[in-house]
Design brief:
With about 140 residues, the protein is mainly α. The protein is about 80% helix and about 0% strand. Helix 1 runs antiparallel to helix 3 and helix 4 packs antiparallel against helix 6. It is elongated.
Length: about 140
């Protein structure tokens, strides 16, 4: 591995974490819908607290993360706009989720939002850097 490749491999690692993070929350959502939670009343309340718009934003974000990872692995510059679109979908989901009191009770929203925002900021910075460096064509 050359020193020039280091930012690329860091980006792949961060994108992989982002994909895993999205899949974790998608599993949380799907498991509630499949009645896999121990507390069925809580699962039902959680599912009913979500809007279709929010779900579209969320699952689009999860899918776009995977597309961005694939494009990055292929060295394609389209990874940057795809990831920015993923970021916008995720932020829209978080804005909608911010008014969901039940979700705020279930998880530490502030910690997860900070983690997510920091991770996404680092990914965007690396995508921009690698795009201008010529690594993503």
């Amino acid at each position: 591995m050359k020193q020039r490749d280091t930012p690329f491999y860091i980006l792949i690692g961060l994108l992989s974490v982002q994909v895993a993070y999205g899949l974790y929350w998608a599993g949380y959502d799907v498991s509630a819908r499949l009645d896999l939670w121990e507390n069925q009343a809580l699962a039902t309340a959680f599912v009913h607290s979500l809007t279709m718009t929010q779900e579209v934003f969320f699952f689009s974000h999860v899918a776009l993360n995977m597309v961005a990872l694939g494009l990055t692995l292929a060295g394609r510059h389209w990874a940057l706009p795809v990831f920015i679109l993923s970021f916008v979908c995720d932020r829209a989901d978080w804005v909608i989720m911010g008014s969901n009191n039940l979700f705020s009770i279930l998880v530490d929203v502030d910690t997860w939002a900070l983690f997510s925002f920091t991770l996404q900021g680092a990914i965007i910075a690396l995508l921009v850097f690698l795009r201008f460096e010529g690594r993503l064509r």
